[in-house]
Amino acid sequence: MLVRSASAALGRLLDEIGPVDCVGVEERVAKYTTRSIKKGSKRWGLQLAVTMIDLTTLEGKDTPGKVASLCRKAIQPHDDQSIPSVAAVCVYPSMARHARKHLGTSTIKVASVATAFPSGQAPLKTRLAEVRAAVADGADEIDMVINRGAFLAGEFARVQDEIAAVVEACGASALKVILEVSELETFDNIRAASFLAMEVIRAGDFIKTSTGKTSLNATLGNNQVMLEAIRDFYLDTNIAIGMKPAGGIRTAKQALHFLVAVKETLGDAWLTNKRYRFGASSLLNDLLRQIEKEKTGAYQAPYYFSEAAESY
Asked: Under CATH, to which class is 2-304 assigned?
């Protein structure tokens, strides 16, 4: 009975927003990997990708010292002064105040995961308290996880009510709503969850693929489904929502494929860290390596670049 009820709720929502053409999505994203990106455009894309990174450490062994080191790398990723800073440093709520201290007056945002990340399995009161604590400690952005159990049970109003409560708890801080796409399982579910979130968040907030803590994270396919949801929502409402793929993006080549997807689906207005982010830390060093290669014609050894947190 519950399964039929959830299926009926999803069916009604898809009647409103339209289902996903799965074959069409896979065919389209396959073409992104064939695009030829010439030298000047490649250098520009690599630098742009650096500015979109949320440099992240989310480990039980995180310390203030580790966060301080991460902040230094975020501000100056490499000795080359032409390399831009990243978009944000993302940490657990208990580390937000340390990130705020070490980022100082830089333009880099302090982002903090919250709402019982990554499971979301805590009472709403507890999740909201965590958000408020992170904001009070200096978080400019909050990355929350949706209640996947409620979504899969067809309790869409509950999902939206909880997101709306987090929006209120964020105050002026931006919100990124994590769908955890691997647990939603289908493209139709991902599209439906994207719309549910976008209907209650604000312009300048984000939807995000993953926590980075499951077996399947960001792919060109689930990224595309969410980009198209953002496009369709924008065309209907004129509200611009940001996008953050997270987990599994480790190479500069992958990052460029994702940027091609953004340009061809949403256009140049989304080619900015105000509307697109990468939740990936190990990606940064490969971007730096590729930028150096474009300048000198030679690859540097990986140890030439200082280490970043690679837990995400």
From this structure: alpha beta
Give per-residue burial for 258-296: e unless 16+ CB within 10 Å, then b.
bbbbbbebbeeebbebebbbbbbbbbbbbbbbbbbeeee
pTM over 0.90: yes
Residue 241, token pair as written in the block: 């929502």
Catalytic residue among 205, 208, 213, 286: 208
Residue 45 in contact with residue 289, Cβ under 8 Å? no
Please state, as a whole number, how many other Cβ atoms lie within 10 Å of the Cβ of residue 297. Answer: 7
Angle ∠(246,230,209) on CA atoms, nearest 5:
20
Q: Report the alpha-carbon distance of residue 95 to residue 93 in Å, rounded.
A: 5
244: annotated active-site residue: yes
Tell me if residue 188 is catalytic: no
CB 282 within 8 A of CB 254: no
Q: What is the pLDDT of residues 237-280, one digit of tens each?
A: 999 999 999 999 999 999 999 999 999 999 999 999 999 999 98
Catalytic annotation present for 143: yes
Contact 60, 68 (CB under 8 A): no
